[in-house]
Specification:
Blueprint lengths: L1 H31 L9 E4 L2 E4 L36 H17 L23 E3 H5 L2 H8 L3 H10 L1 E2 L10 E3 H11 L2
Antiparallel strand pairs: 1-2, 3-5, 4-5
């Protein structure tokens, strides 16, 4: 028994030191070298302070809608709903989101709604939507802001982030930055 217990205790102690101490210190040190010392990117606009990498809840029709959040856009409780795609409660929630979206976007067909506008991301805090999710909202935004639809499409293009190195992930639109730009243009 001694030949098994002492190596296990040593391994536990080594893991505690490495993963609780050294790894944590290394990540903290790397974070200190980033802008804002690891506290996240901050955007100050319209008298408010927003974290760039945390989704915001936009409910007014004059704003682009963010991705739904399973945690109420609360960064302290990041997480998904943990309900599977066949769960009746989850399906009812998604159906309600689809109905709400259609009510606020007349003329859009149910089949044209991108899934990221009616399903939450894994953390529930994704600040981006897909380009199709932004484009499907153009007509509503243009009417609400009294802008030409081409102007709104141009703003979407300007706020489209390309995949990492042109390879990894889809193109996406940062909703907060796009909505803040709209506020600056239509004051």
């Amino acid at each position: 028994m001694q030949q098994h217990i002492f190596p296990a205790i040593r391994l536990t102690l080594v893991c505690l030191v490495v993963f609780s101490g050294l790894y944590t210190a290394a990540i903290w040190g790397i974070a200190q070298a980033t802008p804002n010392g690891g506290k996240g990117e901050v955007i100050v606009a319209n008298g408010g302070v927003y974290y760039r990498n945390i989704a915001q809840n936009f409910t007014e029709d004059r704003y682009f809608s963010s991705r739904p959040s399973a945690v109420g856009y609360n960064a302290a409780g990041a997480g998904g709903s943990n309900k599977g795609p066949s769960n009746p409660d989850y399906l009812a929630e998604v159906a309600a989101r689809v109905d709400t979206f259609l009510a606020h976007n007349p003329g859009v067909q149910r089949a044209d709604i991108p899934s990221d506008l009616v399903t939450a991301s894994g953390a529930g805090l994704d600040p981006h939507i897909s380009v199709p999710a932004a484009l499907v909202q153009v007509k509503r935004i243009a009417q609400q802001r009294q802008l030409a639809e081409n102007t709104v499409r141009d703003l979407i293009r300007q706020h489209t982030e390309t995949p990492l190195w042109g390879l990894f992930g889809p193109a996406k639109v940062h909703v907060l930055e796009l909505n803040l730009t709209l506020d600056q243009r239509t004051r």
